[in-house]
Amino acid sequence: MSTRMGALVLFAACAAAVGHSPAAGEPQKDKEKDKKEKDKKEKGKPNKLAKSSSPYLLQHAHNPVEWYPWGPEALERAKKENKLIFLSIGYSACHWCHVMERESFSNPEVAKLLNANFVCIKVDREERPDVDDIYMTALHVTGEQGGWPLSMFLTPEGKPIFGATYFPPEDKKVGGDTVPGFKTVLAQVVAFDKDRADLVKQADRIAERTVEALEANGRVAVLVPLKRELVAAARDAFDIDPEHGGTGNKSRSFRGTKFPRPPVWGFLLSQAQKPGNDELKTKVALTLAKMLEGGIYDHIGGGFHRYSTERTWTVPHFEKMLYDNAQLVELYAEAHAADPRPEYKRVVAETLGFIRREMTSPESTFYSALDADSNEKEGEFYVWTAAEIKAVLGNDADATLFKAVYSVTAPNFEGKYHILRLPKALAAVAKEQKLTEADLLTKLEPLKKKLFDARATRERPFLDTKIIAAWNGQMIAGYAKAGQVFNEKAYTSAAASAADFVLTKMRDKDGRLLRIYAAAPGEKPAATGTAFLDDYAYVIHGLLNLYDATRDPKWRDAAKQLTDAAVKWYGDGVRGGFYFTATDSEKLFARAKDSYDGVQPSGNSQMARNLLRLGLATKDEAYRDRGIRTIKAFALALQSSPTSMPTMLRALDELLDAAGAPETSDPKDKPAQKNPKESADVVAPKLALDPAKGGTRAFTLTLTVTEPWHLYANPVGLESLADAQTEVTVYVGGKKVEAKLDYPKGQAATDDGTGKYRVYEKTVKITGTFPAADGEVEVRVKLTACKEGTCLLPSVLKVK
């Protein structure tokens, strides 16, 4: 960044997410009707977002800012008028997004500055995660911390100049520094724009660094053997808070925000079940207990809030996301399968009760999110005063019991409110009350119902009703896993109904997934938007969980169909792994291969697990091979940043655990086996593929044969050995193609009993050409290895 632009101080970052809402009664419906009428009167002139189906964009549809949705119209206008672009990215449940909307985007003075000098584009990050990923990466490469709302200034061509998260409308004093307000920032950018050449140079530099960051996984192919050491190193690399559970920064005594990160705990839970990991098992159990006991869990209505703002899981950001709850249901169900505990079963049942009541559409699919705010105040819907609790419960003994159970002593939110939490395990609380745990739960049930009903009359957080394929896939997976573990048909049925909807209503005529199912104002809901890798990865995961729960082959077959589509449209046939966007998606200035397992697993990590599972379910080694190649593509990341891809590590661990798993290091690194059984045990293949030229592609297949073994040449020169001669076939996109092959002559050999023939020893190179076409190239070689008096079992090596 230029010195002047870098001098802009970035104020707060909204670190992601979304909120909540319970069952509605008639008084609440009347309040909502009144509010809609009031909003209607206060709304200004609609802008170009007014026809959107995105609830987030519709929240800005009456701003005085002349917003455009992301698309050709806005980008072409910027180029035509030679204006910089102001890009704002957020989502419907982001607290600081709402704050900036109220303070700045609804402000006529700010709107005037924006409209006169910029083309303004608003993006829902849940609709366009590809756009969000690129510009969030651009922010990160400049050394700034990310979050939402993401505010970026771009050249007319869409290259990032600089960015930030939330800006206050006016300058603010923070300590001895002045934090520039949004008006000041806009005025500075307008002034800097007088020297456009400098801004373009800066944008070019940032764009180049952004491309390097996003495409790193697609450019580098480092051979790292896939061994147990990778898994063990990662297992021991996580810093786990010994007092409150969760991961964090040990050097800071685990202070600061804590995210549940289900991918981490799914991996560590699986590791904890292995012999010798008792200490890890204790830490995993501690974390699961502290999360369900803390204020991050809604003890009245069920379900988890987004994350904790501090170490103890007490004070959350109050938004509730579908994807968090989906993954946590699956995690606690898996935990119960490994270590049956009543609290695990209870938290799954209560969370699914919340999902059924508040997040399930009439079509049996699942809504996206519940906001953190009510009446423009974060958390207002969920918190209590001691007086409110006493008033609702009435009976002093009931109020005393309830306050003791949920730690209603000193206020723990904004100095006057209580966020309900269990100060210790419910069994321990029951013991203090001289009750069994079951008796305590029975006593608490009617008290919680009274508070739930009272809470339901409050102003509700906004509900984002759009259906996202990816997140529905995760909820299908959670329901199916819970149905399997608890033998609960209602859970399995809910998963099946949602899966049927996604497969029938959220695919195009060619069977490809669509990202969003929603309705624009005055229109019927419809599925729109090319899916991303996450959509395929998570829906396939849900279908495979359904197959495991029901053994109905239709779910396995549907998973197979979607996997084949993902390989075709997103797969990297050269280096392995998958791109986030399809080959025919909108071309942005970079194409990423996502690799970080954050609060959700990356598409590549989830696909690696899917492929290995599908290989077992279908007995088709091609899926398993593709899964191994996906893991190999990210092996360097597993080695250099062991905590960054826990779901990929889980896939690797499952691969290594699988019975009869072949060597998973690169073939050329494969050591000669002391007691080889198959010909593949003594041969290492390597494929070199040339670019297409004149409609054909050329290749060289190098086979390295361990001494003293040899292969039979082609032609072998002896009819009795014809079945054993080396033969190469070529497949493109899974289909065999006609190839012109050039086999070397080989060395002459003679056997007194059979006659003269030819063999390949040490290193042999087979070349050939085949018609160029789209799809992954796979060369297969059938061979038999022999030495004096001994032949190994024949093998078919597949090299991609």
From TrEMBL:
Keywords: Signal. InterPro entries: 6-hairpin_glycosidase_sf, 6hp_glycosidase-like_sf, DsbDN, DsbDN_sf, Ssp411, Ssp411-like_TRX, Thioredoxin-like_sf. Residues 19-53, 660-681 are annotated as: Disordered. Pfam families: DsbD_N, Thioredox_DsbH. Gene3D superfamilies: 1.50.10.10, Glutaredoxin, Thiol:disulfide interchange protein DsbD, N-terminal domain. GO terms for biological process: carbohydrate metabolic process. This is YyaL.
